[in-house]
Amino acid sequence: MACTLRLPRVARSLARAVCPATRYQLAPLSTAVGGGQALKGSVVATSSRFSQVRGAAASPATDIDIDGTAYAFMSSQALFSALEVDLFDHIAKKGGAAQIEDLQQATGISAPRLQILVTALAAMNALKRSPEGSYSLSANTERFLVRSSKDFYGDYLRLQMGQQFYRHMQALPQIMKTGKGPTYEKLFADPAEADTYTKAQHNGSLATAGSLCKRVDFSGMKSMLDIGGGSGAFSIVICRKNPELTSRILEFPEVCNTGEKFVAEEPADVSERIKYVRGSCLNEWPTDLGEKHDVALISYVSESVPHDAIPMMYERAFARLRPGGLLIVHSFMVDDSLDGPLLGALWSLQHVAVNANGLGLHPANVGDMMTKAGFENIKNQDMIRKMTKLVIGQKPM
Ligand SMILES: C[S@@+](CC[C@H](N)C(=O)[O-])C[C@H]1O[C@@H](n2cnc3c(N)ncnc32)[C@H](O)[C@@H]1O
Q: 140 exposed, middle or buried (CB, 10 Å; 0-12, 13-18, 19+)?
C-alpha cells in the first residue's frame, strides 16, 4: 500500500529492521544467477551461484523465498545475541571500529564463537569488515542499536522480541491447532514478565507516540483515556506536548507498577497530569476513569483481547467520551485486501501466540466495529509504515 504520509525516521527504520526475512525477499534471484555474483547477506544468493536454488525456483519478489524465510530466525538471534553482549556499544565506545581482540576483551568472550557471531553480523550488513580486519557499525546499527543514540530501540528488540515474543512464538503451531495459549492477563500476573515487557514497550512506543502527535491535533483537548496504556509512553509524550491535557491509563496492576515509575521520572507538570487506574478493560471500567473525555486512545490493545471483546471496548469508550470526542485505535493491521503488508500480517500472527482468540485487524473491520459502537466520520491512515495503522472515529455532536 502506498504511503503518502511523511514518516518519522525511527518508524521507517523499525519497519525495515524488524523482519530480516523482508531483506532476503528483496534480493532478486536473477541478480545472483545472471551476474554470477553472490549477494552478501542473502541465503538465496549465496547458494545460487552455480545451481538451481533449493526452495526458491521463482523470483523471491513474487514467490516465497523458502530458505530465507525458514532461516530468518537465525538472523534474529544473531541480532539479539549482539544486543545482549553489548557488541554494538563496545564498537561505538572504541570510536566506531574495533578488532576482534578488542571485542573479545570488552565482552569477556575469548572463544571462537564470538568471531562466528561477528562474521554473521557482517554477513547481515549489521557490521562492515575492513580489509585489515576491523569491524565498524553500519549506518542503521550505529543509529538505532547503539544505546547512546537518541533513536536507540535495541532494548525493545532485545527484551520484548528476543526474550519474550521469540519464546511465545515457538508455541504457535500448537496454539494454532488447539486454540490454547497464554493471555496477557495470565502473563502479566507475573511481575517480572510484566516489568520486562513494559520497559521494552516504553523504548518502542516513545517514538511512535511522537508520530501520533504529528497526525492528530490534540491542542485544546483537556482529558484523555489511554486504555491498555502500558508504560504510559503515549500519555507522557502527548501530555508533554499539550500542557492542558490530563490522562487516565487503564492497565493491569503489575504493568501500572512499572508505568508509574516512568511517569514519576517526568517533570512534575507532566507527571501530575497522568494517573493509572488498575483493572482490565475486559471487566466493567472503573468509575475512577471519569467521563466526558475529549479523546480515548486504544493503542495495540484491540489485537490483545479476544475478538468478541473488541466491540464492547469501543462501546465503553463511546460512553466515556463527550459529544464530538475522538476514539483513536492504533494497532498492527493489514490492508483491507488481506494480503499484506508482510510486517502487519506477521505482527498480527505473533499476537495469536499470546491471544489465541484475537482478531486479525484491518481498517474495514475496525471501522465497522466503531460504526456499530456509534462513531462517525471514520478515517484511517498508516502509522508505522507497513506495520501499524490508525483508525479514528468521532462521537456525534
Ligand atoms: C503492546 S502493549 C501497548 C501499550 C501501549 N498502549 C502502547 O501503545 O505503548 C499492549 C498493552 O495492552 C495491555 N492489555 C492487554 N489486555 C488488557 C486488558 N484486558 N486490560 C487492560 N490492559 C490490557 C497490556 O497490559 C499491554 O500493556
A: middle
pLDDT at 237 over 80: yes
Residue 69 is predicted with a pLDDT of: 94
Q: Which of 187, 295, 304 to mutate to test the pocket of ligand 1 (most atoms within 8 A of CB)?
A: 304
List residues bridging with 248 in a β-sheet: 225, 275
Same fold, 1-152 and 163-394: no
Per-residue pLDDT tens over the stretch 289-315: 999 999 999 999 999 999 999 999 999
In the CATH scheme, what is the code of domain 1-152?
1.10.10.10
Q: Which of 206, 252, 289 most suits a substitution to test ligand 1, by most atoms within 8 Å of the C-beta?
A: 252
Q: How far is the CA of 21 from the centre of ligand 1 (A)?
A: 27
Look up residue 390 and give its three cell numbers: 490508525
Q: What is the pLDDT of residues 100-141, one digit of tens each?
A: 999 999 999 999 999 999 999 999 999 999 999 999 999 999
What are the domain boundaries of the chain? 1-152, 163-394
Pairing of strands 246-251, 223-227: parallel
State the distance between the two ends of the chain, measured CA to CA, in whole angstroms. Answer: 33
Q: Tell how far the Cα of 31 is from the centroid of ligand 1, in angstroms.
A: 44
C-alpha cell belonging to residue 14 = 523499525
Architecture of the domain made up of 163-394? 3-Layer(aba) Sandwich (3.40)
Residue 54: pLDDT above 80?
A: no
Is pLDDT of 13 > 50?
Answer: no
Beta strand residue intervals within the chain, DSSP E: 97-98, 127-129, 135-137, 223-227, 246-251, 274-278, 293-299, 321-332, 376-382, 388-394
- For the entire predicted model, the pTM comes to 0.85
Tens digit of pLDDT for each residue in 335-375? 999 999 999 999 999 999 999 999 999 999 999 999 999 99
CA nearest 119: which of 87, 86, 167?
87
Neighbours of 339 (CB within 10 A): 9
Query: Ligand 1 site: residues with CB under 6 angstroms?
Result: 184-185, 188, 201, 205, 228-230, 233-234, 250-252, 255, 280-282, 299-301, 304-305
Give the number of the atom of ligand 1 that is nearest the alpha carbon of residue 301: 12
Compute the distance from residue 43 Cα to the ligand 1 centre, in Å.
37
